[in-house]
Sequence to fold (818 residues):
Amino acid sequence: MPVDLSPPLKEELLPVHGVSLGIAKAGIKRPDRRDLLVIQLEEHAQIAGVFTQNRFCAAPVAVAKAHLSGPLPIRALVINTGNANAGTGQDGLDHAEATCAALAKLLDCQPQQILPFSTGVIMEPLPVDRIIEHLPVAVADLSPDNWFAAAHAIMTTDTVAKSVSRQVVVDGVAVTITGMAKGSGMIHPNMATMLGFIATDANISQILLRSLVKMVADCSFNCITVDGDTSTNDALILIATGQAGHAPISDADHPDFGRLRTVIMEIAVLLAQMIVRDGEGATKFITIKVEKGRTREECNKAAFAIAHSPLVKTAFFASDPNLGRILAAIGYAGIDDLDVAHVHLYLGDVLVAENGGRATSYREEDGQRIMRSSEITMRVVLNRGEAAATIWTCDLSYDYVKINAEYRS
Amino acid sequence: MPVDLSPPLKEELLPVHGVSLGIAKAGIKRPDRRDLLVIQLEEHAQIAGVFTQNRFCAAPVAVAKAHLSGPLPIRALVINTGNANAGTGQDGLDHAEATCAALAKLLDCQPQQILPFSTGVIMEPLPVDRIIEHLPVAVADLSPDNWFAAAHAIMTTDTVAKSVSRQVVVDGVAVTITGMAKGSGMIHPNMATMLGFIATDANISQILLRSLVKMVADCSFNCITVDGDTSTNDALILIATGQAGHAPISDADHPDFGRLRTVIMEIAVLLAQMIVRDGEGATKFITIKVEKGRTREECNKAAFAIAHSPLVKTAFFASDPNLGRILAAIGYAGIDDLDVAHVHLYLGDVLVAENGGRATSYREEDGQRIMRSSEITMRVVLNRGEAAATIWTCDLSYDYVKINAEYRS
Fold:
């Protein structure tokens, strides 16, 4: 059961000029489910991406990175769910290339103009024949109005499709941004942590788009964790088709770029939070703010130590304010010269710990009250600098174990 | 249900000359359970220890470290379960000191000659009055034959008491070594990861004992993980009473020291493995060997990335050879220049992966056969150097969540 997360409404997802989406049921893992998606881009669309840093990165990640850094403009993306095509060696690379070649033929472009993406089980051979066989169905289905179906076609253990749209005025012109993402397990930052696709019809230069996608990932998908496992297939892709009709933006100081960036960032943060809300077995959505650290890096260390602790996560699942476990996690986060006597811990608005121990004002019933809510914010004040970091995570429940013990069977 | 772990037999636990143990029921967390232990050492006993590196280290850890580095010889240890006296600020330190002072008075020595240890819930005030009230009961109970009861008195969520004895001939004299440990959750290395006490009547110099305890910890308790949570209270203590009657050993090159060290190490490894076998909710005992790495550090990185992955651990719980999850964990272990095409993965004697993907000889039923066993050895061959590391861990089951969601209630 996702935490305070509803599926998107079809009519809320706005088409983006220059982006068409087509879906097919290729029977990749199971019969009769949408599992194949083609996204076609009109000419002159700019595209940038960030990818997993996992050394066992999937074959499609390797191919997508190569095509993205090549000289030809990207014309389409092909995404399958049900099989990650990761840990598949040379065969996997051949299958990813073959998929690109087949789609290129259908779209009358070069294979290097296609980016492939896969998500699903690792170390199983990709059923490339079934994918190629169903690509014409997906191409025949191409339409700008297919974001809703597309968001469903990229799901794996997700229980809710994740997609959101916004509009903003740039240069006097209404610009649309629509994004979608998938992910609920094997979620850990430092590479986009899932599949995410955000498209806008704004006109943004390639160089600016490249720096933007990194900034967006760092403040959204790199700030979430479900289980600390870094996927082999993570990717975040940002597309700007330029079809909205305003003059190209190539400078971050452009008067309207800040607003556009803010909205793109907002969409990315919303999608990232949706992934946590739909985290495998999640019953609580937890925001961890670490403040007054010396560097953002050490704030992140403390935040992720808390977020990754199975003991903290199970205590949240139980609504048990066993808050010493949070102090323990801060203590082993790797901030070598941390003076714990200066650390303050707040749960919601309740001061829990100060002077190296339980705050004298702290009452168990106050902790209990906060722990029972499904949305919890925790604030750790290190009191040794001016840096801060915020991350989002969820609890660890029986259902996480159940989902992951039963995933393949 | 612990994995292939039986409780010790009382008659197998050999007394160590110069060590007496006394137990009391102080009602620290629950009434009518053994929760207070005093270990008295005869004069001239040498003692050395390693402690948690958690910055939120418990009050007794701070006090024990101070007393251990002081000028006076240590004459006794006092250990309570049911309350960690961690995250308790100045009050916690006062309580630990008061406990030492009370015991010192009973044993006619200085408070600085007592080492305090606590284990249990974090951030609750230590019920120091009840402890001091029951110390006379524990002192009246002091006897060299109490190892069995003592091993029970230090348990928290442990389901099985952990203690083992060995004898070895040193300098023509029979020397006894008996150890005990507690721990089953909040288990992660890099500080002894639990409470462990190993005593011998061998005659070993203080300097040699100090280097020995570090070496022993590194090869035993620092090689295990249950949940990656580093406790605030971890300690491993090594005692040598010198009562066996042989000439003092102060040189690691002494002809019999190697044998003695081997047996002490064996006891430490057995105790460490017992902690994993009794890991919270454990149904599988998993040995992870990483071989042919460039450094032991990078072998450890890969081993612990696998051991900490909730996805790997739940797959083991389900006996599901979803082995791509292991490749993914190796991939994000932080070995930056790892060429995954050279990595070989074996499960038991079965080659699972090579050339960056599934081995052509691999059959699912072979993986399934190994996964069903309760003792599993996994071997990762990095093929880039000559270093190796071995660690021990367990799976992640419903019961881990249950135990830790319900621990305080």
